[in-house]
Amino acid sequence: MANIGDKPLVWLKGEVKTPPFSSRARLEAGLLLRRLQQGQGLSLPHSRPMPAIGRQCHELRISDRDQTWRIIYHAAPDAIVNLDVFSKKTQATPVQIVEVCQRRLASISTDNISITPVAIGNAPRLSQWAFDADDR
Q1: Contact status, residue 51 vs residue 57, Cβ threshold 8 Å
Q2: CA R_g for the chain
Q3: Intervals of the chain under pLDDT 50
Q4: Would you state the pLDDT for residue 119?
Q5: Closest by alpha carbon to 72, among 2, 8, 3, 10?
Q6: Which pTM was predicted?
Q7: 12 near 135, Cβ under 8 Å?
């Protein structure tokens, strides 16, 4: 169960579910996200800074059976903001993903976004929030 001091997860785009994630990869992603919620800093091989997207932006690296998943997140002072989830097929992060994540990061400081709690499904230990926003 989430503790009072844990940061909530804010999902601007994407989700972690089986399928397409394998059960093992979904659990790994959940454990890493939980560590972030508790304020633990992650480093390689689990997390890599993404300064091209913005300050305090990183990518979680999740190896699966036949692909590698990335969860781009921003470690805000009061939340872990998940900007995107995608299957990485090349060594470099696609420019389109970087640009979309930059726009999403910029959108969280605007006044036209409302945060609403959403159902968590099979992961009752995670605090989860969703933004009511479009892709800018």
Answers
A1: yes
A2: 14
A3: 1, 111-136
A4: 39
A5: 10
A6: 0.75
A7: no
Q: What's at 67, amino acid-wise?
A: Q
Angle at 78 between CA 133 and CA 8, to 5 degrees: 70
The predicted pLDDT at position 113 comes to 43
Tokens of 125: 């230990």
User: Going by C-beta distance under 8 Å and a sequence separation of 6 or more, which residues neighbour residue 67?
Assistant: 87, 88, 89
Where exactly are the structural domains of the chain? 9-132
Show Cβ contacts of residue 24 under 8 Å, excluding neighbours closer than 6 positions: 64
Q: Given this model, what pLDDT does residue 4 score?
A: 63
Q: CA-to-CA distance for 24 and 120, rounded, in angstroms?
A: 18
Separation between Cα atoms, residue 8 and residue 133, nearest integer Å: 18
Q: Cα(first)–Cα(last) distance of the chain, in Å?
A: 34
DSSP codes joined into one string, 16-83: --TTTS-HHHHHHHHHHHHHHHTT----TTTEEE-TTT-TTEEEEEEE-SS-EEEEEEEE-SS-EEEE
